[in-house]
């Protein structure tokens, strides 16, 4: 994206534990590339895993996509780890840096 301060990262959910039915009564990895846009450098840094190519994927067709609509727990944990690091970084940032953001009006707010 061309928005200042916005980072775009793409991950493959198979590396975070995404699976779906393999059609034989078991489960198998589903690649499911997913792109996130964030203004948090720490969340972006936590979301880096792309498929290693060391396993076969199940194609998300024939009713298999529904189960993959839910983020796997490890992906949720990665996002939370990034959020926790970002919160810590924000809390230790110099107060004058944070004040700039608090003083700026939201673009959705129109002054009367």
Residue fraction in strands: 15-25%
Q: State mean pLDDT (0 to 100 scale).
A: 85
Structural class: alpha+beta
From N to C, what is the helix and strand string? Answer: EEEEHHH
Largest sheet: 2 strands, antiparallel
Q: Compute the gyration radius: what is it?
A: 19 Å
Q: How many angstroms separate the termini?
A: 32 Å
The helix tally amounts to: 3
Mass-distribution shape = elongated
Could you please describe the fold and organization of this structure?
- It is a single chain.
- 31% of the residues lie in helices and 16% in strands.
- With 112 residues, it is of the alpha+beta class.
- The strands form two sheets. The protein has a two-stranded antiparallel ribbon with strand order 1-4. Strands 2-3 form a two-stranded antiparallel ribbon.
- A hairpin with a 5-residue loop joins strand 2 and strand 3.
- The radius of gyration is 19 Å and the shape is elongated.
- The protein starts with 6 loop residues before the first strand and ends in a 9-residue tail after the last helix.
List the helices and strands and how they pair.
Blueprint: E1 7-12, E2 19-21, E3 27-29, E4 33-38, H1 41-46, H2 73-92, H3 95-103
